[in-house]
Amino acid sequence: MDFKDYYAVLGVSESASPEEIKKAYRKLARKYHPDVSKEANADDKFKDVGEAYEVLKDPEKRAEYDELKKYGARKDGSFERPSGWQSASGFGDGGYTEADAGQFSDFFEEIFGGGRRAGAGPGFGGGFGSQRRSNRMRGEDVHAKLPLFLEEAIKGCEKQVTFNVQEPDANGRLVSRQKTLKVKIPAGMKEGQHIRLKGQGAPGIGGSANGDLFIEVEYAPHPLFTVEGQDILVTVPIAPWEAAIGASVTVPTVGSKVNVKVPKGSSSGSKLRLKGKGLPGKHPGDQIVILQVAMPERHSEEAQELYKQLAEAEKEFNPRSRLHV
Amino acid sequence: MTDNDRILSVEMMEPSATFTLREVCERGDCHAEFVIKLVNYGVIAPVEETPEERQWRFDLQTLARLRKAQRLQRDLKMNLPGLAMSLELLDEVQEMRREVDRLNRQLQQFLGQT
After folding, report:
1. S-S: A152 plus which of A148, A186, B2, B67, CB 3.0-4.6 Å?
2. Exposed, middle or buried, B46 (CB in 10 Å: 0-12/13-18/19+)?
3. Mean pLDDT, residues B72-97
């Protein structure tokens, strides 16, 4: 087991005052709160910070931890509980704390969790964390996010969803279990829409109903399309002469393609609207084609000659007129 | 953990499900007063704001938002005005992150970098 340096987690020195510890904790809790932070592992960091504070804010636990840090930590960063070690301030029978101790690390459990393993009281004391108030209660709802590709969201699909639920083990202690479900997603899901799977959340305790699983749909980044409200946007490159004299070009739509007439005199950034080719629904959106004039990587001598003629014929045109130079 | 990968086939149901105040409290494990206060501060809103609280219905998005409000209050010890403002700012941040992502992708497509 790795030794956890709670001081390093909070970024304070070993001689930090209780005020410094509290301040550091508050700052980091705000920074890593999973509802606030966009960092991928904010959840773990937030838990680490909470665990570190749980120990360091309590003078008794902090003293015990300091002792262990001195004698239990090995040079290679690993840790073994010294034999005969017994925490006096643990979360054992009746040791009430605001924190959800069930969320803490094995390392924490090894030091302060003695009473829990010895068998906590029925529903009270150690194991139940924040849910210890009642021994009959509805299972917790689980909220999960599900990224879908545009094609999948529009057509509907079958998706595997993996999430964690808290459920009591044989000893009544809440443990996190990974659950995987295959879910049939109906056609036409919008970003931010939720769906519910009844009874697929955490199991109820003492014969109460299971919680539900709520899934929020997100759109995964698509290589071709972006979505703006009900509209689907796609950038389509065209040749300079197609922009100049107009052309019929093939553009991709979600799951298919259509022919589009590029009007004469188009330019980079010109938009074409394909009615009803956006997201389906009561008020279906449009597909917006954004034209982008693309140059060939190199020109033949003949083309260069033609460009010279063009330059001569279009002498009046100043592409930099709005730069006032 | 032996049955980590239990796979069930489930049909989606009720995308437009709503919940009464009572159901919301049961699910969120919170007091009705807390929910009513959140409504009064404009943090969340019932589908239709009737004067009779017992007739309130909340949709799924609101339920998720209530949970978020609960977590923030519990973890960061926020009071209601602070909570209301934080959630609004978080919404704004999320909206802007989405917008930036979208514009970045559009720009990359426009520059032909995909």
Report:
1. A148
2. buried
3. 91
Give the residue carrying structure tokens 């057509």. A155
Give me the phi and psi of A68, to 5 degrees please: -65, -40
Q: What is the pTM of this model?
A: 0.70
Identify which of B84, B91, B110 has the alpha carbon closest to the alpha carbon of residue A234. Answer: B110
> ipTM of the predicted structure?
0.75
Task: Give the end-to-end CA distance of chain A in Å, rounded to a whole number.
Answer: 69
Say how many residues make up chain B. 114
Q: Cα–Cα distance between A312 and A306 in angstroms, integer?
A: 10
Q: Which residues pair with A26 in a beta bridge?
A: none
- Is residue A159 within 8 A of residue A146, CB to CB? The reply is yes
pLDDT band per the 50, 70, 90 thresholds, residue A101: low
Question: CB-based contacts of A171: which residues, under 8 Å, 6+ apart?
Answer: A119, A120, A127
Q: Do B27 and A211 touch (CB under 8 A)?
A: yes
Q: Which residue has the higher pLDDT, A92 or A289?
A: A289
Tell the burial category of B91 from Cβ atoms under 10 Å away from its Cβ (0-12, 13-18, 19+): exposed
pLDDT level of residue B114 (50, 70, 90 thresholds)? low
| Helices marked H in chain B | 21-28, 32-40, 60-76, 80-110
Amino acid at A173: R
DSSP state of A80: -
B61 touches chain A (CB under 8 A): yes
Q: Under an 8 A CB cutoff, do B60 and A194 touch?
A: yes
pLDDT in tens, A6-38: 999 999 999 999 999 999 999 999 999 988 888
Under DSSP, is residue A44 helix (H, G, I), strand (E, B) or coil?
A: helix
**Tokens read off for B89:** 């700012």
Using alpha carbons only, what angle is made at residue B62 by residues B61 and B64, rounded to the nearest 5 degrees?
Answer: 65
CB-CB under 8 Å, A237 with B7: no
CA distance A45 to A29: 9
Q: How many C-beta atoms lie closer than 10 Å to residue B41's C-beta? A: 15
Looking at chain A from residue 194 to 253, which residues have their Cβ under 8 Å from any Cβ of chain B? 194-198, 200, 211-212, 214, 216, 221, 223-224, 226-228, 233-235, 237
